[in-house]
C-alpha cells in the first residue's frame, strides 16, 4: 500500500517477514515494521515514512546529514529503516549510549557497513538534533498518539498539527 | 509474500468479538498485535479464513493493581508498555525476558496476551509466565470467564487450553512478595529465539512460613521453574522443583530439567546439546534469582 498505492517508495521491501527492518515506518509515533502491519490495522492512525524527513528533497534532516557525513550508508537499502529506528530511539533518549543505539537498531539489518559507522552517525545525528530541537520529531510524537476512534478524516487533522514541521502524512484507510 | 485470502472483522467491543468467535470455528483467528500471526500468514504457515481484530479494545488494555496485591495486565499491553512499567519490571524474570523478545519495532506492537496465546514452543515470555505462576483469564460468550494457571495453559506446540470460542481477557501476576526471579536464555544468534530458556523464582526458607511442603533442611521454601525452547511446549520443571524443596542442592537437582520431555532437535541444536544448555541456563537463572534475594 505505501509503495504502490501511495507512491512512498522510501520504505523498502526486504525480507517481508519482520526480520530486516528496512520497511520501518512510524505508526502512531512508534517505529514498526510495516510489512507486519495490515493497512486496515493502521486505519485512522498517523503513518510517517522516511519521505517526511526531508519533504523538499533538498534540506536533509540532521540525522540524514549525519549519515552522509559519517558514512552511515553504502548501498542505502537499509537506510530508511535505520533512520526511523534511530528517530524512535532519539525521541525516547535524546543522548543515547552506544549500547542503547545498538539495541535500537537490533531489528535493522545492514549488510554493507558493519554497523559501526551507523552507530557513529546516529550518535552524531542525535547531537545535532539536540542543538536543533525545532526539527526534532519528539514534539510531533506527542501529538501523534493513535486515536482508535478516529476515522480517516480525523487522521488528516492530526497531521495538520505538524504543518510547520513540513510533515506529510497519509491515512491508510483501505 | 502475500497471505492467502482472508476475511477481516474489527471488533468494537469485547462482547462483539466473543459473538464472532461463538461458533468455535478453528479457521477464525484472533488478531492482537499481529507480530507473530502476520508473518506466519505471509509465509502461509497459517491460513485463517477470518481474523477477528481485537487490537482496539480498550477493555483488554492497561495495567492495574488488584486488591489482593497482584497485577492485572491487559492482554493487549505491548512489550514496550510493559518495559515502561516499574511494577512489571519488579519481577526479575520479566525484566530479563522482555528485552530479549523480538526487537524494538516488534516490541512496539507485539502484545503479551497475543504472544502467550500464540504459544510458540520457544517463547521467552512463556518461561517467565510459568515461573511467576501467572494466571490467565479466558472468556467465551457461552460460558463466561474462567481462570487458567500458566502451567495448564501450554498444551502443545502453538497450542493452548484456550478454546476456539474464547479470548484471553486478563493476565493476573501474583505480587513478588518475598520471592525473586530471573530468566536466562541462549538465543539462537540469527532468529533470537532461545535454544533453551529458563526462568526460576525462589523463596528462601524462613522467608515465607506459610508455604507448605517445606522440609526443615531445605534452603528454599519456594522454587518454580519455567522452561522454554526445549520441549514440545513450554513447561514447569516439576521434578527439579520438588527435589529442591526437599533439600537437594540445585546443582544436582537441575540435571533432571528435561526429564520426560521430547526435547526438540534442529539444525542449530541436537537433543543432547539443547538439554545441556537447559541445565546451564537453569543454573544461571537460579544463581541470578538467588543473588536478587541478597
Question: What does this molecule look like?
Answer:
The complex is a heterodimer of chains A (174) and B (294). In chain A, strands 2-1-3 form a 3-stranded antiparallel beta sheet, covered by helices on one side. In chain A, strand 1 (24-27) and strand 2 form a beta hairpin. Chain A contains 6 helices and 3 strands, in the order E-E-E-H-H-H-H-H-H. In chain A, helix 1 packs antiparallel against helix 4. Chain A is mainly α. Chain A has helices spanning 62-69, 79-92, 98-104, 116-131, 138-142, 152-160, and strands spanning 24-27, 30-33, 47-48. The longest helix of chain A is centred in the C-terminal third of the chain and has 16 residues, at 116-131. The radius of gyration of chain B is 19 Å and the shape is globular. With 294 residues, chain B is of the alpha+beta class. The N and C termini of chain B lie far apart (51 Å). Chain B has helices spanning 14-21, 37-42, 79-83, 86-89, 92-97, 104-109, 112-118, 124-131, 150-153, 238-245, 250-253, 271-293, and strands at 7-10, 28-31, 50-53, 63-65, 71-73, 135-140, 144-149, 154-156, 159-160, 166-173, 179-187, 194-204, 220-228, 235-236. In chain B, the strands form 4 sheets. A 5-stranded antiparallel beta sheet of chain B has the order 4-5-10-6-7. Chains A and B meet through strand 2 and helix 2 of A and helix 2 and helix 6 of B.
The interface involving the most residues is between: A-B, 25 and 23 residues
Compute the average pLDDT of chain B.
Answer: 94
Shape of chain B: globular
> Shape of chain A, please?
globular
The string of secondary-structure elements of chain B, in order, is: EHEHEEEHHHHHHEEHEEEEEEEHHH
Query: Beta-strand percentage of chain A?
Result: 5-15%
Let me know the largest β-sheet of chain B.
Answer: 5 strands, antiparallel
